[in-house]
Amino acid sequence: MNNLEPFMKEKFQIKITCCKINTIYNGSICFSDYNKGFFFKEEYYEAQRLGSVSSVSKSRDVEHDNFEIRVFMYDKNEREIEVFSSLIEGGSVDIFTLDEALTEEKKIQSGIVSQIKMSDKVLYITVYGIGSLLQRPLTEAYSLNCRAIFGDHRCKFDRSKMALKGQIEEVLGKNKFRILENITKQYNSVKFISGNNAGREIEIDSINGSNITIILDNLLFSTGDIIELMPGCDKSIKTCSSVYKNALNFRGEPHIPTVRTILNKS
């Protein structure tokens, strides 16, 4: 009977399937098929969000396999689903399992978000295997707007010069809080300096006086957390030049004529 114990333990052990999406601009979004939320490696995984993971196409090279994940969005409105979809577009995906003790991690699949469809508040996300990166262009095409990320090594603008540092005075909801200062300028994102989300930067949905609403509602923030309100950029040459005085580092070609301009002159 003792010989069966390892087999029975493995057979009936609960496996939690997890999904971690590393977004391009807003950190990681994590969720699982487990019946309650939990922290793993200092990141919070939402409960009962992940539906299923299924293969879409196979190749001899596992790294090229494409797959589809279903994500339940029943508790979200259309605006929240739209924001969620825009956040994960182009992000890298890791699918893995955990045991109930959250100790044994086993990687299943990884890839890049390629296509997102919605039906009855369920997102069907097609993920291309990481080998698909080999098919991407190696050079950048020209663009009217700046291709740099605001504040990165190409932009070279120090966003902290225009940041507003503050502290959460009162939590008003899952994605809403109040600070002491009355905000008169336009800010694009909140950077958490302390608390559970230290180091994360999240886009702001709206600001009303001293009340701030962010686009994600799966963060656990609390009164006393130190934050910084960070400025944003619409990536136009006008904003870069007149607001930030940074035209020298503009990474775009705003003066290249478009097809419409050429046709209007002919």
UniProtKB/TrEMBL annotation:
Alphabetized Pfam families for the sequence: Phage_BR0599, Phage_phiJL001_Gp84_N
InterPro entries: Phage_phiJL001_Gp84, Phage_phiJL001_Gp84_C
Domain Bacteriophage phiJL001 Gp84 C-terminal positions: 190-258
Superkingdom classification of source: Bacteria
NCBIfam families linked to this entry: phg_TIGR02218
Name of this protein: DUF2163 domain-containing phage-related protein
Protein's organism: Candidatus Cyrtobacter comes
